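Whiteboard transcription, Tuesday session. T.W. wrote the structure tokens on the left side:
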């Protein structure tokens, strides 16, 4: 039986890794061949991340982590579409990760596309679905112009949607076994802004 970090410990480990990255003193842990071999039969990541596919936001590097440390799901705009929710349910149910971070970032192209007024019908179907989901959230919040506000809101809403759309994730939140955080990565100074910790959806 593997000792699992608590949600709070997992978050502290990620913050410490990001600080090493910021300080220019990464340890590049768990990159050796022995560690790779030890992972061949099983994995015990300390956290899952729903991130944007943007090439400037490489999740493992930002948190100074190595093989087997993070379970990472990425799409354009870090959108909590059904496949991503299922992927994170797997991380929590099977891999027992205690922490999910939704990692948005500054100047996200997918969020910028959602702010434009062009007809979604002009986009390919799958891309329109993704951008449309972001746009729905922004419209509901009355955000129609400010890209940075939109990027922050998009990350927060994606994190909240994980709890709102998954009984499994919401139950894990309620029991205290899981924590879901939203954060925003700054492309200019590489800092992370921790936006919110998601509260479980009340169950009637
Ligand atoms: Zn992006």
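and on the right, the sequence the group agreed on:
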């Amino acid at each position: 039986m593997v000792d699992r970090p608590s949600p709070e410990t997992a978050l502290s480990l990620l913050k410490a890794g990001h600080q090493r990255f910021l300080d220019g003193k990464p340890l590049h842990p768990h990159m050796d061949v022995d560690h790779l071999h030890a992972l061949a039969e099983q994995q015990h990541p300390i956290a899952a991340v729903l991130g944007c596919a943007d090439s400037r936001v490489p999740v493992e590097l930002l948190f100074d982590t190595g093989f087997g440390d993070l379970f990472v799901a990425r799409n354009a705009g870090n959108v909590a579409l059904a496949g991503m929710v299922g992927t994170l349910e797997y991380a929590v149910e099977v891999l027992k990760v205690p922490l999910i971070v939704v990692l948005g970032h500054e100047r996200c192209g997918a969020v910028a596309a959602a702010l434009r007024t062009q007809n979604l019908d002009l986009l390919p179907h799958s891309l329109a679905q993704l951008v449309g989901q972001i746009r729905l959230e922004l419209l509901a919040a009355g955000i129609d112009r400010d890209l940075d506000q939109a990027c922050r809101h998009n990350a927060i809403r994606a994190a909240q949607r994980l709890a709102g759309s998954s009984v499994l994730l919401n139950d894990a939140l309620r029991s205290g076994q899981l924590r879901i955080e939203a954060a925003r990565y700054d492309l200019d100074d590489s800092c992370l802004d921790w936006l919110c910790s998601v509260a479980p959806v009340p169950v009637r």
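Someone added at the bottom: The chain has one domain: 7-197.
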